[in-house]
Specification:
The complex is a heterodimer. By secondary structure, chain A is an alpha+beta fold. Helix content of chain A is about 50%, strand content about 20%. The mean pLDDT of chain A is about 85. In chain B, strands 2-1-3-4-5-6 form a 6-stranded parallel beta sheet, with helices on both faces. Chain B is globular. Chain B has one domain: Rossmann fold, CATH 3.40.50. In chain B, about 35% of the residues lie in helices and about 15% in strands. About 10% of the residues of chain B have low confidence. At the A-B interface, helix 4, strand 3 and helix 5 of A face helix 3 and helix 4 of B.
């Protein structure tokens, strides 16, 4: 076989291999490149020769090449698996994987590079990175949830203990010989405790349903609105007979709503006003219907103004708004606002001389 | 004498230069946070959002070592970090060696400043470093394949050299390439040597001339070397120029 015959397959392999070959000198100038590489970057092989090697890369890649790859080659003569971008003449960019080694000393030092197209791999790596980021986000959301749940259970336990303790002591007292008046007083107290527990349980169940995505379910037209509101007021009065609640009811128009839920909303707003309001002043409750289907319920109390930082989070679950030591899961206002939303309404807060929570349905435009 | 590495690698970059000064100087080399053997858990994005965080680290090292009238040798970004440290603590560093410095990479068409990059270039650069964090995959590899052919390298050194945390490297790139320290240069009181290479894509010779013109007590030596890392490609020239200066 002639020398030509032997060289031809080798030349063919080098020129048309499915990878780029590149030889560079000590100064970082291209000594030669194979045809595959020259086609990838759209530059004739002869035109690559003598160029600075960084010219075949995009800007970021040339900076990484210069500041990281070349120093590594100097330090260890061998680098593999570097992920860079080729910049073609027509402006397109090709992700490649590069392995390189260096031989020789001083001016005769030669560096060989092999470049393999790596678009699919780059895509896969990017997907892995995205997947990790979204897993991290989910994990942190789950951790927040977990914390919330723990806190919730702790608060619930704490808040149920008070009415249970007062029930227990009332039962102990009832087992003794007492006059009728004292018994009646105790039974009233027990009734109040039961109502407190029952409200807590209602709120917890609503919260759980809402968190599970069920939302607040409405049963429209399920009873008399007026008596539902009066009942809510009476319940709260029976718990704390010393507190005054001034009720102004003016329901003149037909309103489609879930009366039991509106009663719960009123109860939660009143409960909030009784906890936070100044006990020396009455809490007022105004209920009116300006037009058919329009309902406005306003609960107002005097007391310490709501701090600005609390305002934004007023309706968030578990926000107890500085009511440390006071009763409540911090769910009352959250559930009231969910009931308002379910009715296509909203609760607005004004905080001037008096603090007013006003439910309007439909919501003010 | 304190040696500070630049962007893209770590203190091993100085291993062909720093030992040459050990007989006459106490030599200190270190890794910035995110590079080499540094404690990556100490990273604080806000602190290192600009070069100021790195300057504070240099000053802290200097205080810890009780440096007085020391020589600071900084490559690339570290040249500016050194300049800022020397302005902040003039008694700590009496001499500066800036290897391939650039006070401002972005061109200023209105002022005629030539940094070599447009703002678009820099934005692209940061974006593609973000999109391709594996650009450093070779330098990130925990163990580099094969045995180093250079007998000077110990195995434990090979394990970590030029290893970068890609996220920190990206933030570092953003801090470096968006920095503008031109106004600081006239405030440098330390005696300054500027070393520049031919054909450095990051800092042309004209940038070195600009730094020389702006730093009061400075001189420029253009090395017979190409690229951005003469301390690796032409260490003898770097050592000779530094000896002449000192």
């Amino acid at each position: 076989m002639s020398a030509d015959g032997e060289a031809a397959p080798t030349r063919d392999l080098l020129d048309d291999a499915p990878c780029g070959f590149l030889l560079i000198d000590e100064l970082g100038q291209v000594i030669s490149a194979n045809r595959t590489l020259s086609e990838w970057i759209g530059v004739a092989p002869d035109d690559i020769t003598g160029r600075s090697v960084t010219a075949i890369f995009g800007l970021a890649s040339s900076v990484v090449f210069e500041t990281s790859l070349l120093p590594l080659l100097r330090l260890q003569q061998d680098v593999s698996g570097v992920s860079l971008d080729l910049a073609a003449n027509d402006g397109t960019s090709t992700p490649v994987m590069i392995s390189a080694n260096t031989h020789g000393d001083g001016a005769s030092r030669i560096t060989r590079l092999v470049l393999v197209k790596a678009a699919a791999r780059r895509e896969y790596e990017r997907e892995l990175i995205d997947a990790r980021a979204s897993a991290e986000t989910r994990l942190s959301a789950e951790q927040d949830h977990g914390e919330l749940r723990e806190q919730f259970v702790a608060v619930l336990g704490h808040d149920l203990r008070n009415p249970v303790a007062s029930m227990s002591s009332a039962i102990r007292m009832l087992s003794r010989d007492l006059d009728e008046a004292k018994k009646a007083e105790l039974l009233l107290l027990m009734q109040g405790s039961v109502q407190r527990m029952s409200r807590l349980i209602d709120n917890v169940l609503d919260f759980a349903r809402n968190r599970l995505g069920g939302g607040i379910e409405l049963d429209i037209g399920n009873g008399d609105l007026k008596s539902a509101i009066v009942q809510a007021v009476d319940e709260l009065k029976s718990v704390d007979p010393n507190r005054e609640i001034e009720l102004d009811l003016s329901i003149t128009e037909q309103v489609d709503c879930d009366t039991w839920r509106i009663g719960q909303l009123v109860s939660n707003l009143l409960g909030n006003a009784l906890v936070h309001g100044d006990p020396a002043h009455p809490v007022t409750l105004d209920v009116s219907t300006q037009a058919p289907g329009h309902l406005e319920i306003s609960v107002c109390n005097k007391g310490e103004p709501i701090p600005d930082e609390s305002m934004a989070k007023l309706f968030d679950p578990f926000e107890r708004n500085g009511a440390a030591g006071k009763q409540g899961l911090g769910l009352g206002l959250y559930i009231a606002s969910e009931i308002a939303k379910a009715h296509g309404g909203a609760i607005d807060v004004t905080c001037d001389e008096v603090i007013c929570f006003t439910f309007r349905m439909p919501a003010a435009a | 004498m304190m040696f500070a590495h630049g962007f893209g690698c770590d203190q091993t970059m100085w291993r062909l230069v720093a030992p040459g000064f050990e007989t006459n100087f106490g030599v200190v080399t270190f890794d910035y946070l995110g590079a080499g053997g540094s404690d990556k858990s100490a990273y604080d994005r806000d602190r290192y959002a600009s070069l100021a965080g790195y300057v504070s680290d240099v000053v802290e090292i200097g205080r810890e070592l009780d440096l007085r009238d020391a020589v600071f040798v900084g490559h690339s970004a570290s040249a500016m970090i050194g300049a800022l440290a020397a302005i902040r603590e003039p008694d700590m560093f009496s001499d500066l060696v800036m290897v391939c410095p650039s006070p401002r990479y972005v061109d200023g068409p209105d002022t005629g400043h030539r940094g070599g990059f447009s703002q678009g270039d820099i934005d692209n650069l940061i974006r593609s470093l973000e999109e391709n964090p594996l650009a450093w995959s070779a330098s990130m590899a925990p163990a580099i394949m094969g045995t180093p052919k250079d007998p000077m390298l110990g195995a434990e050194l090979t394990e970590s050299f030029c290893r970068l945390d890609p996220r920190i490297a990206r933030d570092f790139a953003r801090a470096i390439f968006n920095a503008d320290n031109r106004a600081d240069l006239p405030n440098v009181t330390a005696r300054t040597l500027i070393l520049q290479c031919r054909q450095d894509i990051l800092a042309e010779v004209s940038v070195g001339e600009y730094v020389r013109d702006m730093v009061p007590d400075s001189s420029l030596v253009v090395l017979d070397a190409t690229g951005h890392c003469p301390h690796l490609s032409a260490p003898d020239q770097v050592v000779a120029a530094m000896r002449g200066f000192l």
